[in-house]
């Protein structure tokens, strides 16, 4: 398949590189357009109030690669319209692999990874977002090592990248064609070749208190936490699937937004 690949962790992310190399091994044609620096938690934002620049970059991926000093959505928009060769006929936008899970209603809309895939969806293309779950201890070790995964995490990442490359054609074929749908796929930790792919819905998570009280200088600091999961036991949520060691596949069909609310019958 012919794919444009982006992420929100930046062009130098090992997780992006693992995905691209797996896609290339699977004989997909890949164009990479990724942010110059990390743009996590930015959703589908676009750089409206300042100009952004793009440039060719060589990060040894073995495919045409550009970086944009903007958001994931900027990258996909500029890539599709201005960077890729004329007549490229891209078939899907793939975003990731994200460092950490992108699961639950409380986090999905904030995700830059999903925002990049959504930009494909509003171009009329299938959008696919891949994320690698990890706990706080694994995340802390990764950051302490300069975003270089240790041996155990590398095994999971390589397995997730391979599974992602295998899943792309199936997800694209599932449709529907014409846009407004994003496939959100989260890989568990550890990620194994035996992990089952299950269909899920976004968990119902409430996440207040993501910023600290004001410090002496009046500033508030971001404080991450997983929030309060209020999901019913059925249907299976993305978080529950990850906790069971399964690969969560949630279809985000934005065409369903705005449907009238139907109260439960008394």
Summarize this, please?
The protein has about 270 residues and is α/β, with parallel strands linked by helices.
List the helices and strands and how they pair.
Elements: E1 2-6, H1 14-25, E2 29-35, E3 54-56, E4 65-68, H2 72-83, E5 92-99, H3 105-108, H4 112-121, E6 127-132, H5 136-144, H6 151-174, E7 181-187, E8 197-200, E9 205-206, E10 228-229, H7 238-243, E11 247-253
Parallel strand pairs: 1-2, 1-5, 2-4, 5-6, 6-7, 8-11
Antiparallel strand pairs: 3-4, 7-11, 9-10
Helix pairs in contact: 1-6, 2-4
Q: What is the number of independent domains?
A: 1
Radius of gyration: 18 Å
Strand order of the largest sheet: 3-4-2-1-5-6-7-11-8
CATH class: Alpha Beta
Biggest sheet features: 9 strands, mixed
Q: Under CATH, the topology is which?
A: Stationary-phase Survival Protein Sure Homolog, Chain: A
Question: Which key phrases capture this entry?
Answer:
266 residues, Stationary-phase Survival Protein Sure Homolog, Chain: A, two-stranded antiparallel sheet, alpha/beta, nine-stranded mixed beta sheet
